[in-house]
Amino acid sequence: MGASPDIKRKPVVHVYNHTEHAHWLPAFADLHIACIHSDATIVAFVSPLDPNKVIQYWEERAAEVEAGSRVTVFALSGDGKELAGFVSLNQTMTQTQPFVGSIEKLLVSPNHRRRGVARAVMEAIERIAEERGRTVLTLHTEEGSPAELMYPRLGYLEFGRIPTFMVSPHTRELKGDVGFYKILSSHGTRWDARTKP
Ligand SMILES: CC(C)(COP(=O)(O)OP(=O)(O)OC[C@H]1O[C@@H](n2cnc3c(N)ncnc32)[C@H](O)[C@@H]1OP(=O)(O)O)[C@@H](O)C(=O)NCCC(=O)NCCS
């Protein structure tokens, strides 16, 4: 049986708010596990996976959203029933890089790939980053992964590579890291060198 027309509709993007969205956390964990199982995505855990630890991980990220150091954006399928993907902005406070944000945990469900979900959540998180004055964004991904091909399509530029930087979740092989950055359009005009920290 094919996907219903509602599922095929454009994904709907939400900004995670713990009061309204806490019931989606087990789905965040399921999607995270699905990416490790189906793509060997290097994202915090290696197999064998303990689903409770992955749920706990997302509860901790939700606490960071509550504390204001993180923003998480997620997309639901057009019918609102399935989590299609998500991404986070880590906005750790420093006085020397108050305009730098780190893009983390971009994961799209294997059931919702190549339909613009990554682009939709990335555009949403960049709009939020810009509103909050986080106008220089950095991120890391695995060398040789599809994501390495995707980020330049979203306007990200490579800043360097680190070989043997992380452990593949199933084989335990060491994999290289590629770093990307993007300077959002308002960066030059927004940051005033005279502003005191
Ligand atoms: C990589 C990933 C996030 C892409 O998500 P997606 O929703 O399928 O991507 P989109 O449909 O929004 O595509 C965005 C752009 O990237 C390109 N793209 C997406 N997947 C690609 C792939 N496998 N190879 C090459 N380009 C790709 C698309 O063509 C599109 O560019 P275009 O609009 O200029 O044509 C998804 O495959 C995924 O979650 N993979 C496993 C987890 C992962 O690697 N996450 C990144 C961790 S840093």
Plain-language structure description:
It contains seven helices and seven strands, in the order αβαααβββαβαββα. It has a single domain (5-190), classed as Aminopeptidase (3-Layer(aba) Sandwich), CATH 3.40.630. Helix content is 34%, strand content 28%. It has helices at 5-8, 18-21, 25-39, 51-67, 117-131, 146-153, 187-190, and strands at residues 12-15, 70-76, 83-90, 100-108, 136-142, 157-167, 174-183. It has 197 residues and is α+β, with helices and mostly antiparallel strands. The model has no long low-confidence stretch (mean pLDDT 93). Strand 4, helix 5 (117-131) and strand 5 (136-142) form a beta-alpha-beta unit. Strands 1-2-3-4-5-7-6 form a seven-stranded mixed β-sheet, with helices on both faces. Bound molecules: coenzyme A. Coenzyme A is lined by residues 35, 39, 41, 85, 106-108, 113-119, 141, 145-147, 149-150, 153.
Keywords:
197 residues; alpha+beta; Aminopeptidase; 7-stranded mixed sheet; globular; binds coenzyme A
In short:
GO terms for molecular function: acyltransferase activity, transferring groups other than amino-acyl groups. With 197 residues, the protein is α+β, with helices and mostly antiparallel strands.
